[in-house]
Amino acid sequence: MRSDKGRWAGVLAAVMCALLPGCSLFASSMQVVNVTTNEPAAEILIDGGFVGRGTASANLHRDRDHVVMARLDDRVSTFTIDKEISTTGILDLVGCFFFIVPIIGIVGDGFWDLHPQSVVLVLPPAQRPAQ
Questions:
Q1: pLDDT at residue 41 is higher than 60
Q2: Three-state DSSP state, 95
Q3: Half-sphere exposure (CA, 13 Å, Cβ side) for 120?
Q4: In Å, how far are 16, 23, 61, 100 from 104, measured between CA atoms?
């Protein structure tokens, strides 16, 4: 006959094994992305919103793609930051083969990572006026 301590330890171990691989639910829904331009005076916009000049950092939602733009006068450079499955998301998928519970991690924002986390935008050179 098992003691109460042994029974609770078994229950706790089963719950932990089932829930810990589903850690995408516990990851942050935001991720810091750094953007730098070759022109210190260039405006940096992410998804159409101004975030700084020359160099900026922004907290972005992990669960969607983002468009980054640098502009100075008529010169523009753009880049798309894509979402991809995160390491915790991969662990959730692998955990699904052993336990069913980790599959709920795919609904969490932590299932995704933004890639790349640092972007360098190079503006084209300024055009010289025709003479």
A1: yes
A2: helix
A3: 2
A4: 15, 9, 19, 8
Summarize pLDDT for 64-81 with one digit per residue, the tens: 999 999 999 999 999 999
Distance (Å, rounded) from C-alpha 13 to C-alpha 74?
61
For 7-70, give the DSSP string. Answer: HHHHHHHHHHHHHTT-GGGGS-SEEEEEEEESSTT-EEEETTEEEEESEEEEEEETTS-EEEEE
Torsion from C-alpha of 30, 36, 41, 46, nearest 10 degrees: -30
Q: What is the pTM of this model?
A: 0.75
Residue spans of the domains in the chain: they are 4-121
Whole-number Å distance between alpha carbons of 4 and 116: 50
The listed range with the strongest mean pLDDT (33-42, 95-104, 120-129) is: 33-42
Distance CA 60, CA 30 (A): 5
* Amino acid occupying residue 85: I
